[in-house]
Structures are given as structure tokens and as C-alpha cells.
Predict the structure of Glycerate kinase.
Amino acid sequence: MRWVIAPDSFKGALSAEAAAAAMAAGVRRADPAAELCLRPMADGGEGTLSAVHAALGGRWREHRVQGAGGEPLDAACLVLPDGSALVEVARVVGLGMGKAPPMARSSFGVGELISAAVADGARRVIVALGGSSTSDGGAGVLLALGARFFDAEGRALSAAPHDLLRLARVELGALQGLPVPLELWSDVDNPLTGEHGACAVFGAQKGLTVAERGVLDTALSRLAALCGGDAAAPGAGAAGGIGWALQRLGGVRAGGAAAVASAIGLETAVAGAGHVLTGEGASDAQTLRGKAPYCVARLARAAGVPVTLLSGRIELSAELAAAFDGCFSACHGPVSLKDAIGQASEALEFAAWQIARLRVAAQPAGPG
């Protein structure tokens, strides 16, 4: 039987590639003759470049840019076989990278990497927006691409949030749209500001206090008013507002998981498969809001192929159960987070083995 194995990463434990390999090993134990098609997935956040590279190949290009706190950083983008350059925000200003406080973090390095990709001859630039540690409204990206910011006294400002609080004037004369198509991969549909905006919804996970979230939201509203663009557009609040900045430059938004699935040819891989296996670190109601396993499940259902969810932790609901033909946790009993992470590969392999044994046993017996 042909199996398609397409998990997302198990954050903090396994990359999508490692998770797929562990699941494949379990299936192989149950069915040595199984045909295995591994398609590691991502949703536009951390791990997107690796998932696309695993399926399509491409060339890695590394550039020296600024990290979130202004520190020098060597960040890679992926040049795809069609000449597109894929940039992953999480590789430049990702959560957990650097030591700068939240109000000092800027997306300047993302703009530098986009500019470098264009200078290298990219025919199209794709930006995977998930996993950002910044909340500067994408001001850093605009600054790197030619915008200038000033306070009321005419002093030049950086794009760090603590400077944006004093923003009074912008100069956009040197800011131009990119000379190539720009595509944005993200499943976040939040606006830039307001109660559903970047600061209100994502500020806490990036370390902003309640007070900082309030004053910074006001500053981002002023930034948008001065620069133009649609602050209320779906996805404007992605990556701390980088979504708004790149839409301001002509970027077109696409659903992250669906875009990755299309890029790696997942629909074609699923067609004619006997079973599909997917998963992620933790599955709950949020999984159904465009996350990678749900995207995999929809493709499998459309093709009439059974699909099983195998995740580290599952908060089961009727809606989640209905989206898959079985939902299983890799954790077999009470276990600490530390132990779950340490045993993730072995646990996934064992659980996949059990799922595949059941699937094989349910197959009609052959002649004789």
C-alpha cells in the first residue's frame, strides 16, 4: 500500500522532516512492502524553507543581515528551481533569537534579505511570515527598502518600537515596490491594529507588557496613516505587522499551509494513495483554522483517501475528530514535557507502527 506521510514540525522536539522519518519507520515496521511518500509540511512559519527544500530542492543563498536587535546575522534564503526566492521571517527575527527586549526589536533584517534576493536576480520573492519576534509593524522592512522616519524635531528614527512611539513624519520618496512579484505566505488573517491586531493578539507571546501593547498599537496606527496601505486588510497583522508593510509594497497574500502544499505537490502525491498520515506537536481547535494537518486532511478527503492525525498532544473536539479518520496522541500516558520532547522520535515511530498494523490487518486478504 502507498502511504503519504505529511506532518508539520513538532515544535521544540522534531522538524517536519524528522517527524516524517519517524512515522515512516513505524509504517515500515508494520508493512515492509509499503510504498512511502514523505512530504514534510509547514504553514508559512518556522520550517517552511526546509519543507519546501525537501520536496523541490533548490539552492541556498546566505546573506549577512541584521537580527531583530541589530546584531549581525547570516540568514539563508532558498532559490527554487523556477528562480523564485523563498524568505523565511523566522530565520531572521524568529522567536527566541537574540537578546533584545521586545520594544527594541526591528524587522530591518527581513527587508535586507528581501533586497539581497532581488539583487541576486530572483524572478519572484515569496515571504513566509510566521514565527516573528517583532512588533514594529514592518517598519524595519520599509526602512531597509528606502523609507525614512522622523520625530517632531526632525531627528531620524530607527524602526524599533521604542522609536516608533515618537514617530511624527515619514519620507517615502526612496521607497519603491519590488521589481518582481511578491507573494506572502501566512494563515494569520488579523488586521494591523485594534482589538484583533498584531499587538493585542500576538504581543504577549513576544514579551510586550499590557501597557506596551496599548501605546505601540497607537504608534502602529500612526505609522499606517502616514505611510498609507490598508491596515485593516486580512493578514496585515501577520509577523508583527510585516504583513501590512509587504502588502503596502504590493505583496499578495496566500494561505500558508495551502501554498506550501501546492509548492511541494501534495495534492498529486495524495492522489491514488492508500492512506495519509499527518500530525503536529499539539492539535486542538486551532488546527482547523488553516494549520498544516487540516490542509493535508482536506486534500486527502477530496481524493477519497483515509487520513489519520498523529500528534504529540491532542485536545479532542467533535469538530477535530470529524476532520480526520482517526486522531491519536503519540504520548501513551502521563509524561512530562521534557520527557515527551526527549522521546518524541521513538514515540512517533511506535504510534505510527500501531496505526499501520491496524490498517494492514483491515486489508482484504489476498488470494490463496
Remarks:
- The chain has two domains: 2-40+276-361, 48-256.
- The domain at 48-256 is CATH 3.90.1510.10 (Glycerate kinase, domain 2).
- The two ends are 19 Å apart (CA to CA).
